[in-house]
Amino acid sequence: MPGIVRARVRAALRRPDRTLRAARPVPLTPEETEQRALLLRLMSLLLQYPDAELAAARPVITSTVAALPPSSAAGHLAEFTAWFTGQETDALERHYVETFDLRRRSSLYLTYYLHGDTRRRGMALLTLAQRYRAAGWDTGGGELPDHLPVVLEFAALTGPGRGEAPLRQHRRGIELIHRALTDADSPYRHVFAALTELLPPPTEADLRAVAELAAQGPPDEEVGLDPYGAGEFAPPGAFVPPGQAPPTLVPPSAPHRQEDRR
């Protein structure tokens, strides 16, 4: 990973800075598409569970962010990495669990915000996994397909069109997480601020839906995934937040994170 990142950064430094929003009418150049992919991949890494492996990679990640061409998204990532590099690993782990595992409003499982605990979520997970397979991408099965780091990695690999379609589809959920992190004053709000810089701005309808979602929560219907064949993504019970499959980067020898979350 570090070699790939450094190569992408060296190439990016030779390019003029331009707005990276996908919503703009002018198509991205190949160089801008590469720079965008690097930003998305960095966000994917920074939103994964900060185990010892990720903590050890902080110098490379930080230097990569520092070498990015100036942009609003790069500035937000620099704000986050300044905090990220100054924390002890155990403190990072605690903050991550408290932020993303113990608070439903900032869960990283995107289909939850759109479908809640309903049968539709099982179908949405299956459809998303099929999208990955159709693009020739194997996630490795370590996480549910709607886990935001997984969705970001797919976007980085596949490109602004179909690759970023799941991000655009879940724009309201991303906006709600961003608001929750901002309300909690979590440094992870900077990563979401960088992400929203790359997405189309929310519409008035989006903002109304986010406000309603924040007030009422998503739909609720206690069901499992098995009737839709989605059991392959996680063990039984992982469907209902905040239960989840093991974090992407946690090695088998690492201590188990809290599974019975409320």
Automatic annotation (TrEMBL):
| Keyword Nucleus attributed | no
UniProt keyword terms in alphabetical order: Nitrate assimilation
For this entry, the protein name equals: Nitrate reductase molybdenum cofactor assembly chaperone
Q: Where is this region: Disordered?
A: 218-262
- ATP-binding as UniProt keyword: no
Species this protein is from: Streptomyces marokkonensis
Pfam families cross-referenced by the UniProt entry: Nitrate_red_del
Superkingdom, taxonomy of origin = Bacteria
Segments of skewed composition (Pro residues): 243-254
